[in-house]
Design a protein that fits this description.
Strand content: 15-25%
Oligomer: single chain
CATH topology of the largest domain: Alpha-D-Glucose-1,6-Bisphosphate, Chain A, domain 3
Number of domains: 4
Bound molecules: 2-acetamido-2-deoxy-6-O-phosphono-alpha-D-glucopyranose, zinc ion
CATH architecture of the largest domain: 3-Layer(aba) Sandwich
CATH class of the largest domain: Alpha Beta
Largest sheet: 5 strands, mixed
Helix content: 25-40%
Structural class: alpha/beta
Low-confidence stretches: none
Length: 544
C-alpha cells in the first residue's frame, strides 16, 4: 500500500483545506492527488493543488484544491475530500469507485492537475506524495514547484481560459501585472506629486512572497523601489513577522527598519494577504489593515467610473471583523453599498460576484476585486468612442489597466500591494492621508478554549449566537455597557478555539469588553483549559 494512513485523527477539509502538523499529512496528500484527478475529469478542466499552511508555524503544512476558474473548491466536494482523507486504507479503492459512480465520472477522460508549494521544508516530500496520487490515475500534471498561492490560482484560471486571462506561466503572471503597473504609472501625471518615486519596505514573512516580489520588483523598478526584509534567506517562516503576526499582535514585525512615515507592507507565508503600516515621528506604530485597503481601492475604482462617465453597481463585501468605523465610512461618506458575510474567502468571493464590481476584503488583509465582463465591455466602449485627450477615455484606460493589475482569482499580497501603490499615486496622497480616511475604533481579538466548539450555532453573518441560547443575551447586556461597543464570538474554522472580537471607544474598554465576553463563552459555552484573565492595571492584554 502506497502512503498508508498511519493516524486515526479525523482531518476535515475546512475553510483553508486540510491543515495540521506536516508529519500527519503524507496519506492526505496522496489521496488529494487522487481527488484532484477525479475533480479534473468531472469538470473537464485543469485543477490546481496548493501545498501550504499559510500563516501557520513552519512545522505545519496543508493542502487545498483550486477549481477551474481559480476559485476555492466547491462545498459539495469539500465533503468528498474529508471522506477520502479519513477512510481506512482497505476501503479507499471502494470509496473512489463510489465517487466515480455517484458523480458519473468518465474515468477514461483526460485530466490535468497543476500544483505548487510554499517554502516549507516539508513541501517537497508532500509534493512527491501528491504526485504519486495523481500518477495512480494516469493523469497529466505540471509541478510548478515553489510559488505563491495566488500565482497558482492565476495559473489554473489562465490555463482554463486558454491564455485569455494571461499567459499561463509564472513569468506570464509577473509580466501581466508589471505591464499593467508600468502602464498606469507612466500615465499618471500630477503637477505636484508627494513623492516622485515611492519606496516601500516589504516584510516577506520569510516565505515565498519574498522570493516572488523580488522578481516583480525588477520589472517595475522605474516607478517604485521595493526593499524586501524577512526574505527567507535566514529567518524562520512566519516567526515574529508576516501579516497575521502584525494584524493580531497589532505591532510591527521584527526585521523591518523603523523609519518614520516609510510605507511598510507585511505578506503572509503564502502571500495571499497583505497588511500595511508605518511609524510616526515618535516611532509609534500605525496599521492599515484589509478594511483600509478596501476603502482606498473601492474609492479609487469609484472615482475612475465617475471620470469615465460610467454608472456601475459597485459593492464592498466585508465580514463581522471589519472595523465599525470602516463600514460607517464606506456607507456614510463614500455612499457605497456594503455587505457583511461569514468569515472565509469563499463567502466573500461569492457575494462579491453579485455586484458588477465587487471589492472584498477581510480585515486580516485577504481580498481582491471582481469585475463582471459587462464592466470591461463598457470601458472598451468608452475608449472606442473617445478622442485621445478625452479625460473619460483616459479614466477608462486607467481602470482597464487597474483590472489587469488585479488578481481576480483570489487575494494576492503582491497584486494588492501594487493596487494600493497605484491608488495612492493616482489620488496623490501619502500614507498619512490614507490613514486619515477614517479612524479605527479600538478593538481586541481573543480566543478561548471550549470542550466542544461545534455546539456553537450562529446567525446573521456570524454576528449572533443562536446556541447555546444563554450566551447572546449576556453579550448584548455587556455590549450595552460600553460606548460604541460591539462584540461577537465564533468558533474558529482553523483552530480548536472560539474567537472573541470586541470594539469600543477606548482600547481599555475594548480590552475589557473582550475579556468579559470571553468569560461568558468560557462559563456558558463549556470552557475548558485556561480561564480568561482580566486586563490588569490599565495595561493591554497579552495575546496568546
Ligand atoms: C482561513 C480563511 C480566511 C479566514 C480564516 C479564519 C480561506 C482561504 N482562508 O484562513 O479567509 O479569515 O480562515 O480563520 O478561506 P478562523 O476560522 O480560525 O478564525
Ligand atoms: Zn495565506
Amino acid at each position: 500500500m502506497n502512503h498508508p494512513k498511519l493516524i486515526n485523527q479525523i482531518l476535515e477539509y475546512g475553510t483553508a483545506g486540510f491543515r495540521t502538523k506536516a508529519n500527519l499529512l503524507d496519506h492526505v496528500l496522496y489521496r488529494v492527488g487522487i481527488l484532484a484527478v477525479l475533480r479534473s475529469k468531472f469538470k473537464k478542466a485543469t485543477i490546481g493543488v496548493m501545498i501550504t499552511a499559510s500563516h501557520n508555524p513552519v512545522e505545519d503544512n496543508g493542502v487545498k484544491l483550486v477549481d477551474p476558474h481559480g476559485e476555492m473548491l466547491a462545498p459539495d466536494w469539500e465533503v468528498i475530500a474529508t471522506d477520502l482523507a479519513n477512510v481506512s486504507d482497505d476501503r479507499l479503492s471502494s470509496l473512489i469507485d463510489s465517487i466515480v459512480h455517484k458523480w458519473e465520472i468518465d474515468i477514461t477522460s483526460p485530466s490535468n492537475v497543476i500544483f505548487a508549494r510554499d517554502t516549507r521544508p516539508s513541501g517537497s516530500s508532500l509534493s512527491a506524495s501528491l504526485l504519486d496520487g495523481i500518477k495512480s490515475l494516469n493523469s497529466s500534471f505540471t509541478d510548478f514547484e515553489i510559488l505563491t498561492t495566488p500565482q497558482l490560482h492565476y495559473l489554473v484560471h489562465s490555463i482554463n481560459t486558454n491564455g485569455l486571462y494571461g499567459t499561463p506561466t509564472p513569468e506570464g503572471y509577473i509580466k501581466k501585472l508589471s505591464a499593467a503597473f508600468n502602464q498606469l504609472h507612466s500615465n499618471i501625471k500630477h503637477e505636484t506629486t508627494p513623492f516622485e518615486k515611492p519606496r516601500i519596505f516589504v516584510d516577506g514573512a520569510n516565505g515565498v512572497g519574498a522570493l516572488q516580489v523580488k522578481k516583480m520588483s525588477k520589472e517595475i523598478e522605474s516607478y517604485i523601489t521595493i526593499e524586501v526584509f524577512n526574505d527567507a534567506t535566514s529567518g524562520k517562516l512566519n516567526h515574529m513577522c508576516g501579516a497575521d503576526y502584525v494584524k493580531i499582535q497589532q505591532k510591527a514585525p521584527e526585521g523591518v527598519p523603523i523609519i518614520p512615515y516609510e510605507r511598510c507592507a507585511s505578506f503572509d507565508g503564502d502571500a495571499d494577504r497583505v497588511i500595511y503600516y508605518y511609524f510616526d515621528s515618535d516611532k509609534r506604530f500605525h496599521m492599515l489593515d484589509g478594511d483600509k485597503i478596501a476603502a482606498l481601492i473601492a474609492g479609487c475604482i469609484s472615482d475612475f467610473c465617475v471620470q469615465a462617465g460610467l454608472s456601475v453597481d459597485l459593492g464592498v463585501v466585508q465580514t463581522a471583523y471589519a472595523n465599525g468605523a470602516s463600514t460607517k465610512y464606506l456607507t456614510d461618506t463614500k455612499m457605497l453599498k456594503v455587505a457583511c458575510v461569514c468569515t472565509g474567502v469563499k463567502h466573500l468571493h461569492s457575494k462579491a460576484q453579485e455586484f458588477e464590481v465587487g471589492v472584498y476584503f477581510e480585515a486580516n488583509g485577504h481580498g481582491t476585486v471582481l469585475y463582471k465582463a459587462s464592466v470591461k465591455q463598457k470601458l472598451n466602449q468608452v475608449i472606442q468612442n473617445g478622442s485621445s485627450d478625452d479625460s473619460c477615455r483616459v479614466a477608462a484606460e486607467n481602470l482597464l489597466n487597474f483590472i489587469d493589475l488585479t488578481n481576480e482569482t483570489v487575494g494576492d499580497s503582491i497584486s494588492d500591494m501594487l493596487l494600493v501603490e497605484t491608488a495612492l499615486k493616482i489620488k496623490a496622497i501619502d500614507v498619512l492621508m490614507w490613514d486619515a480616511m477614517y479612524v479605527d475604533l479600538p478593538n481586541r481579538q481573543l480566543k478561548t478554549q471550549v470542550c466542544d466548539r461545534s455546539i456553537f450555532v450562529l446567525t446573521n453573518a456570524e454576528q449572533q449566537v443562536v446556541k447555546p441560547e444563554s450566551i447572546q443575551p449576556k453579550i448584548d447586556e455587556l455590549v450595552s455597557k460600553y460606548k460604541d461597543g460591539r462584540s461577537f464570538v465564533r468558533p474558529s474554522g482553523t483552530e480548536d478555539v472560539v474567537r472573541i472580537y470586541a470594539e469600543a471607544d477606548t482600547q481599555m474598554n475594548a480590552d475589557w469588553l473582550a475579556y468579559e465576553v470571553s468569560l461568558v463563552v468560557y462559563e456558558l459555552g463549556g470552557g475548558c483549559g485556561k480561564k480568561p484573565t482580566p486586563p490588569h492595571d490599565g495595561k493591554l492584554l497579552t495575546i496568546a
